Amino acid sequence: MAQINILENRFQYLSPFSAHQIQIWGEHFATVEHAYQASRVISGPEREAIINAPSPLAAWKEGQKYKNDERLKVKGFDKLAVMEELFRAKLAQHEDIAEILKETGDAELIKVHEHDYFWGTGADGTGKNMMGKLWMQLRSEL
Question: Poorest-confidence range of 31-35, 41-45, 53-57, 87-91?
Fold first, then answer.
């Protein structure tokens, strides 16, 4: 039987899925993931469905529906710049995030995710790990 490790530690709070509400762009979002997914979609009922999703996973799933819809997606969307802005807001609005980030010292931060070769490491470790790199950049500024 396969095993699933249900991992709970402070470093999970660096995830966009963590339960840290943020205020940005004159709006309130339940998580960074809600804000990120909503930022990719122009205003309308689809965007509201993302914002009002009951969990970050549900916000992600809702966002995936519209990711490639030319009618709804924000033109010129820069996912790295948006995520940096969101992580900066999370860091500024939650003291625990700064504390946790400092606790990481000079360790390499990685997002191990077998299907994500941009934000994570990918299945074979060749992913760009942009989420880890972004957090390390922000850590260097503390």
Answer: 41-45
Give the per-residue pLDDT at 11: 86
Amino acid sitting at position 97: I
pTM for this structure?
0.92
* Lowest-confidence region among 1-5, 18-22, 35-39, 98-102: 1-5
Pick the closest to residue 39 from 54, 53, 24 (CA basis). 24
- 129: region left, alpha or beta (phi > 0 left; psi from -120 to 50 alpha): left
- Which amino acid, residue 43? S
Angle at 65 between CA 61 and CA 70, to 5 degrees: 145
Determine how many CB atoms are found less than 10 A away from the CB of residue 15. 15
Please tell me what DSSP assigns to residue 67: T
Instruction: Tell me the two tokens of residue 97.
Output: 């995030």
